[in-house]
Amino acid sequence: MMTLYGRRGWGSVLIEAQLAYYDLPFRFEEVDDLFTSASARKALARINPLAQVPTLLLDDGRVLTESAAITLHLADLTGRDDLVPGADAPERAAFLRWLVFLVTNLYPTFTYADEPTRFVADATAAKAFRARVDDYAQSLWRMVEHAAAAPWFLGERRSALDLYIGVMTRWRPRRPWFLAEAPKLHAIAQAIDAEPAFAGTLARNFAE
What we know:
Layout: E1 2-6, H1 13-21, E2 26-30, H2 38-45, E3 55-57, E4 63-65, H3 67-78, H4 92-113, H5 123-147, H6 160-168, H7 174-181, H8 183-193, H9 196-205
Parallel strand pairs: 1-2
Antiparallel strand pairs: 1-3, 3-4
Helix pairs in contact: 1-3, 1-6, 1-9, 4-5, 4-6, 6-8, 7-8
Pfam families: GST_N_2
InterPro entries: Glutathione-S-Trfase_C-like (IPR010987), Glutathione-S-Trfase_C_sf (IPR036282), Glutathione_S-Trfase (IPR040079), Glutathione_S-Trfase_N (IPR004045), Thioredoxin-like_sf (IPR036249)
GO molecular function: transferase activity
């Protein structure tokens, strides 16, 4: 059985939702707040030196990190192409482009700005840094909005990109901003919320 190290509402929800979707057996190991707990970071660093979630311990003992890598691995493991277009699918190139865009460009804006004092010691400068990063993130989201089709990001075909959008739009700048500034992404997020295959995982992670 695989073990997913994560925290409710954090990036691990992206992988938790896919494991549940594929009906793969796994154990969820909840970690303490990695921003505030040195002991939690030290414990997770024994498995993943970056001490980040998601961290997936495969059933043969190997460690897999980075949500995009895990997303591709789970599709290969199950032999399915309903979340990851196959190598010959016409949507494959766009899928890979925007999956990597989300995780290499947008995801780091949370890494750096969720707790900016980790990188900028002065409190006033840290506040300004967070504001600048958030503005930059919004400019990136506008690029994603421009590329999005309907009803799903790739058009008629639902993919893991839609799950990423459904989860990441719950973080800053949050859904009201997307409704006003990125309506296609907002519609995709709402559609993912309504998908029975993901509803349980999302409810567990984002319960008020």
